[in-house]
Amino acid sequence: MRRTKIVATIGPATSSSEQLKDLILAGVDVVRLNLSHGDIAEHLARVEQVREVSAAIGRPVGVLADLPGPKIRSGPFPAGSHTFDVGATVILTAEPGPSTASRVTVDYASLCEDTFNEDRIVLGDGAITLRVTSVESSGTTGRHITAVVESGGVTQGRPGVHLRGDRMRLESPTPADLVMAEQMAAVGVEFIAVSFVRGSEDLRRVAAVVGNRAHLVAKIETASALDDIEAIIEASDAVMVARGDLGIDCPLEDVPHLQKQIIRRCVEAGVPVITATQMLESMITAPSPTRAEVSDVANAVFDGTDAVMLSGETAIGHDPAGVVRTMSQIAARAEREASYRQWAERLGRIQRSQWGPDSDRITAALAHAASRAAADVDAAAILCCTRSGRTARAMARFRPGSMLLGITPDVATMRSLTLTWGVEPMSMPECASTDEMVWFAVEAAVQSGRVHSGDTVVVLAGAPDRVGTAAADVMRIVGVA
Asked: Which ranges of 158-237 does DSSP label H, i.e. alpha helix?
């Protein structure tokens, strides 16, 4: 049983309902919509398509809408591909017009003011790297930058241009992002990812538009975000380690360590975390991954990530469902070696002051006790009765060895739990008392085939008449008849 969740981007390779069905049956928990490509009407139709396929299969699937964020792009290269050779000199300018391999136009007015000697400038997905040798901000030759190609490659179209993130005068979220966030929240997507987050205030601006209609995912892809990481995690409902852009804005050798640090902080805070970018990228065209990619996915699991994400592998790859099955197998195998018991022991030593408000402290303390009780009685499952999903997420942070069921009467909550490590979302009816809630939870687990007669289960619940307190304050150990 795999417990690490899989997020998969859908695109041209998964455009039909049948292709989407194959993808979900292969093991996808959350579908990602990349709003940087296509128009909003197309994405709104995709949300409805996911809902229909999910209902037909009978399996809850979350939807993550990934906002484009601010983008700097080059002017268009003429038709065909253009090669940047190592050692070649390149001129960059903010003047409008087409680009060539020796002169790249950039749609960023402050290019010369915000770029210094020895800065790195990256084109596209990071294959082409330029090092700035001089900056001419005035004079008869016009405002431009001279750079030398340090790593070459082929480009075409209008590739992105990556400058030093801490100097860029870009607004995030953009006005267009806020419009898209409102449209996606209106149709009920579970998650909205905010790109180019540099501080917690960026998330609050989106939250002012979205409210409690969707969970906000902070994409950590800039060095600036690392300076405010604790506040960003606190302001987020989930976090994405966007290693592609992070590896452009930070030294590449730092990225593995940053990944581990961010994941650890998110698990401690009970905030779901996604590890993303180039996880099985070779499988866009190849039938099997490289050995390094297999190790990369496994190491993300060892780090404790809630979810691993596929991008081009499922959006444009030749066998999207096969990629998902491969990732699922790698994750499931890695989980058998992961040191989850050590996670639980360490998290149990975290001071209560870090657990937040009183209701969160009660839930966190109860979850810690439940993780130990489940191990002591060899429980077949831990049943988390939850309306908001908070109890299940609090339980998941201890990475229990027992099966973890998030049982809720709320459909939106059930879908939101698709991103949380180990949680299998299930539905239950509204209940009038705690006793009734416990009975229905056990019955739902039995009817689903996950729990059997003779099993022992641990049940977490709260009084149903205290909606809004978000505190589970009852733990029962139940022998299933």
From this structure: 175-186, 200-210, 223-227, 229-235
Give the containing element (helix H, strand E) for 474: strand 474-479
Distance CA 59, CA 76 (A): 44
Supply the DSSP symbol for 377: T
**Distance between CA 145 and CA 130 in Å, rounded?**
11
Return the pLDDT at 351: 44
Position 202, amino acid: D
Q: Which tokens go with 402?
A: 């027992």
Spatial neighbors of 281 by CB under 8 A, at least 6 apart, are 293, 311, 312, 313
Q: What is the DSSP string of 340-364?
A: HHHHHHHHTTS-GGGG-SHHHHHHH
Topology (CATH level 3) of domain 341-479: Pyruvate Kinase; Chain: A, domain 1 (3.40.1380)
Verify cis geometry, omega within 30 degrees of 0, for the bond prior to 425: no
CA 16/CA 28 separation, integer angstroms = 16
Q: Are strands 144-151 and 89-93 parallel, antiparallel or unpaired?
A: antiparallel
Considering the candidates 5, 46, 219, 390, report the single residue annotated as catalytic: 219
What pLDDT does 353 receive?
Answer: 44
Q: 82-162: what CATH class?
A: mainly beta
CATH 3.20.20.60 residue ranges in the chain? 5-69+172-335
* C-alpha distances out from residue 191 to 67, 227, 427, Å: 11, 24, 20
How far is residue 325 from each of residues 51, 90, 434, measured CA to CA in Å?
A: 22, 43, 39
Residues in the chain with pLDDT values less than 50: 351-353
Residue 240 backbone phi and psi in degrees, to 5: -120, 125
User: Which residue in 9, 275, 277, 418 is the catalytic one?
Assistant: 277
Q: Which pLDDT value is given to residue 425?
A: 97
What confidence score (pLDDT) does residue 411 get? Answer: 95
- Catalytic hit among 51, 59, 73, 372: 73
Is 277 an active-site residue? yes
Every domain range in the chain assigned CATH 3.40.1380.20? 341-479
- The single residue of 32, 46, 198, 390 carrying the catalytic annotation is 32
Q: 5-69+172-335 has which CATH code? A: 3.20.20.60
Instruction: Cite the residue boundaries of each domain of the chain with CATH code 2.40.33.10.
Output: 82-162
Quickly tell me which residue has 């030759």 as its tokens: 141
Told to judge if 100 belongs to the known catalytic residues of this protein, a careful annotator would answer no
